[in-house]
Amino acid sequence: MRRDLPTFVLLACIGLVICLTGCGSSGGSGSTSPAEDPTVQAQAASVITPAAGGTVSTAKLKVEFPAGAVDTSLDVVLQSLYLTPYKQSIPGAPGKLIKVTRIRPEQIKLNAGTKATLTYTDSTPGPGAKLMVYRQDRVVRLVGEATRAGDEWSVEIGQLGIFFWVLETNFCLQFDGDDDHVNIPHSNSIKFDSDDAFTLECWFKSSETSTADPCTWGIIIGTWVGGTDGMPYPYNVRLWRGSCWADGYIDFAIYDGDIWDSASEADEPAIYVAGPYNDGQWHHFAGVRNGKSLMRVYVDGLRVASIVPQAALGTTLNMRPTTIGGNAMGFNNFNGCIDEVRIWKKNRSRAQIQADMNKRLTGTENGLVGLWNFDEGGGTVARDASSRRNDGSIVSDPKWVEADWPVTP
Which of the 8 DSSP states describes residue 190? Predict the structure, then answer.
């Protein structure tokens, strides 16, 4: 997720910036120079008596200096507060910035061993949201997580400076199984031939079943358009449903276009993994292909199946779009939630999959060529957070909802 971040010049004093963002990730470091918008500003001022302390506040922000916290060599300190909007995330803490509050202390210093309390008030984040606090010196560093009590988020600091508050709310897309899907235009960077190594990953959740006979399926991620036109595809991941043996199964398939819907499916190397994975729980899927030597499937970090593909398999390249939640023709649609879709141009090991499956990626990881984490929280574009920038168009009206799969720092 990328936004435009204007720049400001700090006045001849130490500034304090607190940023509230829409959907963030874990911390990191990097330089930044956020800038205020002078056209939208709310200001509050208060006189702080060093011996007794004091409070400065606007409708959203409060800064409390307890008695004895402020350097008593100063007789009186004027504290100013500015509320300013920004649009882009800070380095190391990506997200959609909603607003920024800047506190400008005038001749103020905290005594060693004392702390001031910063409190931000916001009732909109869901119960699973976290507010992470970052401090900027020459780089941005993670301070810690703010404590929440109702609508108030508080953190203690022992040193003044520039602080960013980043709201971590993990969004996903909820597809209705009718015509919702994400359409990513054709790109060679996310297409692979039968000799290539690649890995697909995602989180998904569905409780859909069916009495249909024969079974049907919903596409989680694929490059198959539909029909029997013999068009090859480099990957297709489907969740099956229906009154047959495959209800709740998931499969990972590639196809070279020679044989379609035959009794043997000899030229469609595919792995069918018994479920049920339509049990209403979040599951992590990873499909790994190492050229023609091996295909593997991992579910929830465990290897559940593998096959050796056909040695004579032809090309699997096509010029079709890549789709999430359905196909480009608007059928075989998935009913449920999908999040954190990743495409790697490499054969990932079990240890690598397990190490990263519960983490929020930055998009800069080695070999990562596609990352759709759906953390925009709204709109009609699913941004590719990788360096390839293969953004997708959101078709129909899938819902942006908070995801509750287990995220670890």
Answer: G
